[in-house]
Design goal:
mainly alpha, 6 helices, two-stranded antiparallel sheet
Length: 214
């Protein structure tokens, strides 16, 4: 009788262990949640900021290329015309790189400027001479400042190697264009957003493991 009971206990224990093992295999692990916003690629994890960067660079070209062409016909200053030509050439090249990388990483891109950009295009399309020159320099300088902060932020923290290389090219283009626009002498720096207020305590760098030399 005791042998029979002991056999039943052992059999029940075996079923219990199997059931627990099955539950652990079926249920997702809470220790390593997978976010739908991140995609693991051979070049590294791709996150929301990486995708947003590609979208913003694409949209920058969608309005700056035609506006640069406007400058050839509407600008009163030869300098503004020259700056417009650089914008067309540089953004045309950068757009090719942007679309190629987006296709490789599976990031959908817009095919038209955003509403703000469309309103700026309409404004410049209705102007000529000094009025065009002034608004061209200030609208584009302000826009490049906004894009620069996005590119720099992604460059400093992206986990994806392909995006890291892309941001280097993008930040060079944006810096070049800000300098060119400022060279027109028409940028009103008092109208640009102020730099962010420094925090009282600078953020501590991430801990880095140091190994003693033998």
């Amino acid at each position: 009788m005791h042998r029979l009971l002991r056999g039943e206990v052992l059999m029940f224990g075996g079923f219990a262990v199997a059931a627990v093992a099955t539950i652990f295999l079926v249920m997702p692990s809470s220790a390593a949640p997978v976010s739908a916003e991140w995609t693991v690629l051979p070049s590294g994890p791709l996150g929301p900021a990486d995708r947003d960067l590609l979208v913003k660079v694409r949209q920058a070209g969608l309005w700056e290329i035609p506006v640069g062409r406007y400058a050839q016909e509407r600008a009163g200053s030869d300098r503004v015309k020259d700056v417009g030509m650089h914008l067309v050439e540089d953004h045309t090249k950068l757009d090719v790189v942007t679309r190629r990388l987006a296709a490789k990483l599976g990031v959908p891109l817009p095919d038209q400027p955003n509403p703000d950009q469309q309103s700026w295009m309409a404004q410049l399309a209705a102007e000529n001479g000094p009025a065009f020159d002034r608004d061209f320099a200030n609208l584009l300088r302000a826009a490049h400042g906004k894009v620069f902060t996005v590119v720099a932020g992604v460059r400093s923290g992206t986990r994806n190697g392909e995006v890291r290389k892309f941001t280097q090219q993008a930040v060079n283009v944006v810096m070049k264009h800000m300098t060119l626009l400022e060279s027109t002498g028409l940028v009103d720096f008092d109208e640009l957003p102020e730099p962010p207020t420094p925090s009282a305590t600078p953020p501590a760098p991430a801990a880095v493991e140091t190994r003693r030399q033998p």
